[in-house]
Amino acid sequence: MTVSRRMVLGSSVAAVLAVGLAGQALAADPVRIGEINSYTGLPAFTIPYRNGWELAVEEINAKGGVLGGRKIVVVSRDDNGKPDDAVRIANELVTAEKVHLLAGTFFSHIGLAVSDFAKQNKTLFIAAEPLTDAITWEKGNRYTFRLRPSNYMQAAMLVEEAAKLPAKRWATVAPNYEYGQSAVAVFKELLKAKRPDVEFVTEQWPAQGKIDAGSTAQALAAGNPDAIFNVTFGPDLSKFVREGTLRGLFEGKPVVSLLTGEPEYLDPLKGEAPEGWIVTGYPWDQIDTAEHKAFLAAYQKKFNDYPRLGSIVGYVTMKTAAAALERAGSTDAEKLVDAMQGLKVDTPLGAITYRGSDHQATLGAYVGKIAVKGGRGVMTDWRYADGAAYLPPDEVVAKRRPQ
Amino acid sequence: MGFLVAQFLSGLAHASSLFLVAAGLSIIFGVTRIVNFAHGSFYMLGAFVAYSLADRLSGALGFWGAVAGAAVFAGLLGVAVEVLLLRRLYRSPELFQLLATFGLVLVVQDLALAIWGPEDLLGPRAPGLEGIVRILGRPFPQYDLLLIALGPAVLGLLWLLFHRTRWGILVRAATEDREMTGALGVKQTRLFTSVLFLGTALAGLAGALQVPREAANLQMDINIVVEAFVVVVIGGMGSVAGAFLASLLIGQLQAFGILIFPQVTLVLVFLVMALVLVVRPYGLLGRPQAVPRAGHAPETPIAPASQGARIAWAAALAVLLALPLAVGDYALVVLTEVFVLALFASSLHFAMGPGGMVSFGHAAYFGLGAYGAGLLMKHLGAGMVPGLIAAPLAAGLGALVFGWFCVRLSGVYLAMLTLAFAQIVWSVAFQWYSVTGGDNGILGVWPAAWAAPKWAFYYLSLVLAGGGIYLLRRVIFSPFGYALRAGRDSPLRSDAIGIPVKRHQWAAFTLSGAAAGLAGGLYAYSKGSVFPNLISISTSVDALVMVLLGGVQTLTGPIVGAAVFHGLETEMVRHTDYWRLLLGVAIIAMVLVFPQGVVGALERLRPRRPGQAREEAVAR
């Protein structure tokens, strides 16, 4: 729909009239949500994400909005992939755009920067995508809640599968920054707890986006491991898969790989998707539940494209905001934060809860194996791993959060 | 044994890819002296175009045709850029073309996203070379063998081209002495255009040849360009053989380095570059740069502010002081950032302009300042005031140490050494978790309660940044500043009258670093957090863009440049998804309209001082 100047003029006149005529005009004021993400930095992930939240907002407003008829308006901004830009934008959204709450972010450090801003400004922040454990644990705060299953949760899901393998000698390859490092650390810790007999024989830390895939693959092979834990993704992953496959690195070796089953990362590999890898992901075309089918149909109708995992995340982020607003019965930040504690939200993947203890949602992930069908990678033998089962109990996380 | 050989060969294949990109960059710089920041963009476009062509054409001929087509496409684009853009800037101040190519990078990033979409595009493997061969029992890709052969083959062809053709001889002559070559009647424009074709076609070829190895993606440009510069500098700017040697060195160090110390991947190339430059100031095979005799217009000596300028400054200050009464909090937030960035840009300008030392790594001192404040808060619980005192001290100390090495070099080599140091500082901040928090940064660096309101921090920044800029200005017109400028304009004569040039440069470098550190400290408190990206290359480039945009030969330039650049960026981000495209176009437009920088162009419009024309004539 195009918005003409006349329509804007007309609606502002109407708004003025409404304010003047009716005492309950406040109820018709929209609820404003500030949204920040790396749209230019990571378009492959964030554009499907934006589609997701646009769909959610459309659905919410079509049903009459929230808080007795108030529409939701999202003010969305690109953070340029920089935490300092994100903080400036958060400032703009809160002070100039007068948003009632903040949501979004992809990169962990940007999520952390905005979460600290939220704490300082006493504004609710729903961190949609950042994976770092710190955002809910070591650096957690009252005003920040996180939706996506964390690094720890996804690694724990994979450890469950890895422990079933006979492999004793493990190699790891992960991008050389916090995400990769904490994923490997959690994987090692949890796997050793389940299988004291395993050892980690070699590790590789390519710089993000700059993997020298041939050398890395050979260096891994030289350690003569029984199995490999992979955390690389995006362009590094496709390079690593190509060079590793050519060099026979994966022959007879199980590979356990974080996020690789997500369409964002799996689809670019096309027919070269690495068969047999055990991954976390999102088999969007095979999920048979009623709530997912409804979501899929609505998404395909609106965008004429299939959803990626980011679409789910964006969709659920705005559904969360709407649920929190309804539960709080207000746009007051403190009431919203209270409402977020233990908030239940229905999602295309099933019902989730935002834990009161560490502000982590119990959204799960799908764990399965990669196969190639019809010239593209798909997930097989998958199951939905409910996030609640992979989170440490409340008393444990309480110790990790600042008091 | 087989493993070591395979690793060695992998290193060679990597080296060949690097060499193709670096050779093009080196040739372009050697002849035109353009620091082509957009070289990576040609590489990326090469990969995307090859992907699209290979997708449409079929068979072996199709694939190799696609590779060749991509290289030609990149070359023709290079020609277009030279004719339409760069040609107009050869008389601009040194490095000004970097600004134009920076704008180009932004434009290409958004165009590539618009044309090819956000997803990574995995192309076909090279027909006939999909498989492996066994070398001492180890599997090794056939395609990598081709790459290994290609590196020396291209080197050989370039050698023949430069030594056995008339064109090559002219190019070498132009590399040695541009002015003399021109004086002998060689048409420079045509030479430059053809050099741009060759250089960018090599970049496009390198990108196209990556298609069988990696998915074409939107980060390829930035990921390759810095590494290519490093290779060129290690080898010696303008030396193709040097670039080859440096590629081999980097390729092998990478292949074997990860066996011994896998974490080294982030910083390896920069460590190597720093070491090489400290030992060999002109790279492995480089020679001292010939000083261009009339490469750009001679600088007009800067003059103290006139009466009119003083009144204008006072009026501007009065407006800024009154502004919090009139505008909202968000405007104050943006203006606070502009003050901080103006100080940052002014500090870089102090080193670049009066000091004559271009820094590609000025973010190091900005970041050291921010981390100085942040670490004091994190580990000692210190408040804002000690933090803001520590910031310039930490950065000044860093500049003191790094400056000692840097002032021994000159020109682009000096600039690249500053970049190497900045990357080393960055990787320390990025990897030293227990102290710096790694890439999760330091949180909770908020101002003290009295400075927490936006208007209070606005005034604090105005006072500190304004004070810093004023101080730098005073230094420029102090005896130290005059000596510094003398040393820049004529090192030999300055030396002869007893000015210790290097020591003056070292002191100026340190002062510049300390001022950048103050800016970094203020920035940290305005954001509440400190992350390694403050030290990243893009922060350094932003500062450089601000200085060049304003005009490097003026004192007001960096302030105007910071305001224009930051204002444009923040406003465009608010209103459009294609803000990079618009910002890039805006920069290119400004470059074409103001080839001396914004303030530089405005000053040309002013009535001239009596006697100025004669001074300039003498200077010529």
Explain the layout of strands and helices:
The complex is a heterodimer of chains A (403) and B (620).
Chain A (H helix, E strand, L loop, with lengths): L4 H17 L9 E7 L5 H20 L9 E7 L4 H14 L4 E4 L3 H14 L3 E3 L16 E3 L4 H14 L4 E5 L4 H17 L4 E6 L8 H10 L4 E4 L3 H13 L8 E7 L1 H4 L11 E4 L8 H14 L5 H20 L4 H8 L3 E4 L2 E4 L11 E9 L2 E10 L8 H7 L3
Parallel strand pairs in A: 1-2, 1-3, 3-4, 4-5, 6-7, 6-8, 8-9, 9-10
Antiparallel strand pairs in A: 10-13, 11-12, 13-14
Chain B lengths: L1 H31 L6 H18 L2 H26 L11 H21 L15 E4 L2 E4 H23 L1 H11 L1 H6 L4 H22 L10 H16 L4 H21 L7 H12 L27 H16 L6 H24 L10 H18 L3 H23 L4 H21 L1 H4 L5 E4 L8 H23 L2 H11 L1 H6 L4 H27 E3 L6 H14 L6 H19 L3 H15 L4 H8 L6 H8 L1
Antiparallel strand pairs in B: 1-2, 3-4
Helix pairs in contact in B: 1-5, 1-8, 1-9, 1-10, 2-3, 2-4, 2-8, 2-9, 3-8, 4-22, 4-24, 5-6, 9-10, 9-11, 11-16, 13-18, 13-21, 13-22, 13-23, 14-15, 14-16, 14-21, 15-16, 15-21, 18-21, 19-21, 22-23, 23-24
Uncertain spans of chain B: 292-297, 610-620
Task: Characterize the quaternary organization of these chains.
Answer: heterodimer
End-to-end Cα distance of chain B, whole Å, is 64 Å
Classified by CATH, the class of the largest domain in chain B is Mainly Alpha
Mean pLDDT of chain A: 91
Give a count of the beta strands of chain B, DSSP E runs of length 2 or more: 4
Q: Count up the domains of chain A.
A: 2
Tell me the β content of chain A: 15-25%
- Could you describe the largest sheet of chain A, including whether it forms a barrel? 7 strands, mixed
SSE series of chain B = HHHHEEHHHHHHHHHHHHHEHHHHEHHHHH
- Class inferred from helices and paired strands of chain B: mainly alpha
Elements of chain A, N to C (H/E): HEHEHEHEEHEHEHEHEHEHHHEEEEH
Considering residues with a beta carbon less than 8 A from a beta carbon on another chain, report the largest interface and each chain's count: A-B, 64 and 71 residues
Which strands sit side by side, in order, in the main sheet of chain B? Answer: 1-2
C-alpha Rg of chain B (nearest Å):
25 Å
Number of helices of chain A: 13
Fraction of residues in helix of chain A: 40-55%
CATH level-3 fold name of the largest domain in chain B: ABC transporter involved in vitamin B12 uptake, BtuC
